[in-house]
Amino acid sequence: MVAGKKGGKGPTGYQLRGNRNLERLSRITTKRQDEEIKRSLKLGLEAAPSVVDRTISLFSRGHQPAFAGINTFMKAPYCEDVRKVKNYEAAFVGVPFDTATTYRPGARFGPQAVRRISALYDGYSVDGAVDIYEELDLCDAGDVFVIPGNIEKTFDQVTRAISHIFTSGVFPIICGGDHSLGFPNVRGIAPHIDGNVGIIHIDRHLDIQEKDMDERMHTTPWYWTTHEPTTSTHRDHSHMHDVGLPNCRPENLVQMGIGGWYGSRPGAVVAKRRGTSVMTMTDITDLGPAKAAEMALELAWKGCKAVYLSFDIDSIDPGFAPGTGSPEPGGLLPREALEMVRLIAREGLCGMEVVEVAPPYDVNDNTAQLACRVMLDALGSMCVEGKIGHRAKVMKK
């Protein structure tokens, strides 16, 4: 609650962070908002004469109403010609693939659900002191053409797509799909970074076993992503060419929120052998979200040039996020999860993914909305810290 020297005092005498944030937000221009109004009136025609607010158009062509229009993520411009993605600073990309789920399918509909509920938001946060709409050139790059039923071809498609976005100088906001996508997502980024890449993986499950039911599934991405010396006797030589990205070291993989009673036995052996850092839900409860995030950052960034964030929505207790394939009670509260995401993102990320949103099991879009919030809180935190966007250009002097 204490904000420092600036900002008005509340009735208790504390310096209120909210007042300071309001002052900062008041200095951000409304150029984008003004441009959108002009565009809406040009493309959507002027409203009926009885409408007093003449910024309202006849056909919806902007952010309002939230329940109208053709949804993209945050109603950002749709980059249909993906060769032009380089004109933006960040791009939402959907990967609607759930063939690698081992329990409940449905995550292929995750990107659609997140886009739909994102229309509720306008990118303006008093709590975060950020206006993403004004401070970030954001687009929706659409969905990767996945190959249902074929994991390996889909992985190749995803890696190529994410690589295109990243090498275009654009921050990828990847929406799954199941968690098998962690491997091809990072494989699309890591080879283009001159140095090691750390990974912070927030989940209830380890997802680091070699195979599951004889295939690379949503329980296996970090086995194939993090590098293990070729002298290991634990390698499956049929996939030798795909095992381990050389600049993704297991010691820079931090797994947070792990726990429950399902799916961790095979992965526990690999995690112990490779020396990854496993932070259980009990650890986070004992440490507190802020300290847990601080430790995760120290481990993930050690000797690295970049860090990637992988957020499985089942890390949040299913009482809040029921729409997922492998729910596990006892997970993070939304407020804890979002606090950790903001603290992690403020140091800068090379990319991020939010996976395992399965709308068929969701209630009132709660799970999709939390996934959207994870993305927005990460982007907002990076904007505030100058890791992404163009805050300086939109601040009034």
Task: Describe this protein with a few key phrases.
alpha/beta, Arginase, Chain A, 10 strands, 397 residues, 8-stranded parallel beta sheet, two-stranded antiparallel sheet, single chain, globular, disordered N terminus
Number of domains: 1
The 3D shape can be described as globular
Parts with pLDDT < 50 across at least 5 consecutive residues: 1-7, 231-242
Structural class based on helices, strands and sheet pairing: alpha/beta
CATH class call:
Alpha Beta
Radius of gyration: 21 Å
Strand content: 5-15%
Query: For this structure, what is the CATH homologous superfamily?
Result: Ureohydrolase domain
Measured distance between first and last alpha carbons: 27 Å
Brief description of this entry?
The chain is of the alpha/beta class and 397 residues long.
